[in-house]
Design a protein that fits this description.
alpha+beta, globular, about 600 residues, TIM Barrel, about 30% strand, 35 strands
Length: about 600
């Protein structure tokens, strides 16, 4: 047993398990989850190694254990694990170090902790986030992208559990090459675990996680604030005020309402969305002038400041022929019509932005070249035909910034400028890797290339957004399309508890929208999170008045709170239907999802 000055007691065994005693509580791992290395040739369980050494490990930073595994039957594989407690932070560092490993598929280590005491729950940042009580009656939702970090499966690269005796935060330090599992059959229990992935088909460098343990009485807010500190140290928690110094228009975007409309739709016969029974529905063009009329109508009806998010403005149509998307749709009015729509927005005090895309790479794009497509580890090109444009690959991430600069150089030459831009899927889909030797890219590098696209837009004075909110992008991302809830567990705004002052998040305001918990009024979630609202542009009469009234409340609330951290969130009723968020300036927002009522203190003025 080893005892650090911070009273963290660590022990380890040769089978790959360890126990930790922190704040008087001993954490044990589930022994049925045997640590292993999965390879293409088979699975190597740690406890199958014929040569296992365990030795004390001590540096000027802390102390723990070093374990070496080799002598696997029929394999020359060898690897180490390092477990050590940091004297300065009391964090437990867990490193997997490959020494001789080939054709690795994934490394499943450390094993999940056991947190089965009554009153315990898991904290999962899948999308906006949710809590999963250990005895929750439903099975846990399966995250997308096979649980890969740096995607909508995990807006933030950490997991946690809370028990009456304390909690822990598990931080994945190389999240671009890691994934996670949240296993919870109906009725429980819950097991949270991490899987480490190879890079470019090989496992050549270490993978690591850290645990930080919390005292009895801690909760999910405690974990969020712990991670906020880590994010600040890593330079991820860049506040909106700092981004506003890089591009004009942020003060006008804050408090705006999102008007999301399209121009040209063309659905290829190859697309999964092609309507075979009603082929006439596969093509539609709405003139730029008609969208300008809509902006005028909404302004006359009393809409607060709008941000116009324009889909399908390019000649090929929405989700077609990217990255060769220019010119502006001719039948809708071409460049003159697009510019006139922008001017209408600006004359009426609104913001104007374009939807764009630099990941999907369509076969019928004018400059399509398969050598520019993302190459998988086996040398093949990923291809599918789900979206409107039909058959496609993925564009190699190294080329995305180049196509972006090419297209916007031409747009600016044509006189098309904008306040904002939406670069689709970058903050939703998993990191990419490309094995083409002419543009080889690791997952980490792919995120850097995406980030450089946001930086390019900021350098042009344009506020960038993308599909969802994710923390690797927050040094430059200003806002997103949405950051809603996964359908599982007890929804809770983990992401906003960490990053509310760093990014603007719009919300759908009605019931039944994707990402809104079943039965909930989206307007109340928007209020609780002091977010932007979406304009329901198809409404008329009293329904439109109600929507515009909701937008005015949200506009005023976000104007007050956009630069404030959400300092706490709590449930005020046993059924979790009454909730309260508190912000840095003391503002509280209380919502009742059963009664569909809310209270803001201090009250907003003028709404």
């Amino acid at each position: 047993m080893m005892n650090t000055p911070q009273t963290i007691v660590l022990s380890a065994d040769k089978q790959g398990f360890f126990t930790v005693t922190a704040h008087g509580h001993t954490w044990r791992q589930d022994s049925s989850h045997r640590p292993c290395v999965r390879t293409k040739a088979g699975t190597l369980f740690f406890d199958q190694a014929q040569d296992i050494s365990l030795a004390p490990y001590k540096t000027g930073l802390g102390a723990g254990y070093q374990l070496r595994y080799s002598g696997f039957p029929g394999s020359d594989a060898a690897f180490e694990t390092l477990l050590w407690v940091d004297d300065a932070t009391s964090r437990l560092h867990c490193l997997f170090v490959p020494l001789s490993l080939n054709e690795v598929v994934e490394v499943c280590w450390p094993a999940p902790m056991v947190a089965d005491e009554p009153g315990s729950y898991a904290v999962v940042p899948y999308m906006q986030g949710y809590l999963l009580p250990t005895d929750w009656p439903q099975e846990a939702p399966k995250p997308p992208f096979n649980g890969q970090m740096c995607s909508s499966a995990a807006y933030m690269p950490w997991l946690g559990e809370i028990t009456p005796k304390g909690g822990y935060l598990l931080h994945v330090t190389k999240p671009w090459d890691s994934a996670y599992d949240c296993l919870h059959p109906a009725g429980g229990p819950t097991r949270l675990s991490v899987r480490h992935l190879p890079s470019l088909g090989q496992m050549q460098d270490e993978r690591s996680v850290t645990y930080q343990f919390t005292k009895p009485g801690s909760d999910y807010v405690t974990l969020c604030k712990l991670y906020r500190g880590m994010a600040e140290e890593a330079g991820l928690a860049v506040p909106l005020s700092a981004k506003g110094q890089r591009a004009d228009g942020l003060d006008r975007l804050i408090g705006s309402s999102v008007l999301h409309v399209g121009i040209k739709t063309h659905i290829s016969p190859d697309s999964a969305y092609y309507d075979q029974e009603h082929p006439e529905k596969n093509d539609e063009i709405i003139p730029f002038s008609q969208r300008a009329d809509l902006v005028k109508q909404l302004t006359k009806a009393g809409a607060p400041r709008l941000y116009l998010h324009l889909d399908g403005w390019g000649e090929p149509g929405y989700d077609n022929q990217h990255p060769d998307y220019l010119p502006a749709c001719e039948k809708a009015g071409g460049y003159p019509g697009l510019i006139a729509l922008r001017e209408t927005c600006r004359e009426l005090g609104h913001l104007f932005g374009l939807h764009d895309q630099y990941r999907d790479y369509y076969f019928d794009a004018a400059s399509y070249d398969p050598d520019n497509a993302l190459m998988l580890a086996d040398g093949t090109l990923f291809e599918f035909a789900r979206w409107a444009g039909g058959w496609q690959n993925y564009l190699c991430p190294a080329l995305s910034p180049h196509y972006l600069r090419r297209n916007y150089t031409e747009l600016f030459r044509q006189g098309v400028t904008m306040d904002c831009v939406y670069l689709d899927v970058f903050t939703c889909n998993e990191p990419d890797e490309c094995l083409n030797p002419r543009h080889r890219v690791t997952r980490k590098e792919s995120l850097a290339h995406r980030l450089s696209c946001f930086d390019y837009m900021l350098a042009q004075g344009i506020l960038p957004s993308s599909e969802e909110a994710i923390d690797w992008a927050l040094p430059s991302l200003v806002f997103c399309h949405w950051a809603p809830y996964a359908q599982g567990g007890i929804p809770v705004p983990l992401f906003n508890l960490v990053y509310h002052d760093c990014v603007l998040i719009p919300w759908m305001l009605g019931k039944g929208s994707w990402g809104t918990p079943k039965g909930d009024l989206g307007f109340l979630h928007a209020l609780l999170n002091a977010g932007m609202g979406y304009v329901a542009d198809s409404l008329t009469g009293e329904a439109q008045k109600e929507n515009l009234a909701q937008l005015k409340v949200l506009s005023a609330l976000q104007t007050r709170l956009a630069h404030q951290q959400m300092v706490s969130h709590r449930f005020l009723s046993e059924d979790t239907r009454v909730q309260q968020a508190t912000y840095e300036d003391g503002t509280t927002v209380t919502v009742d999802f059963n009664q569909e009522t809310y209270e803001i203190k201090p009250p907003l003025e003028g709404v």
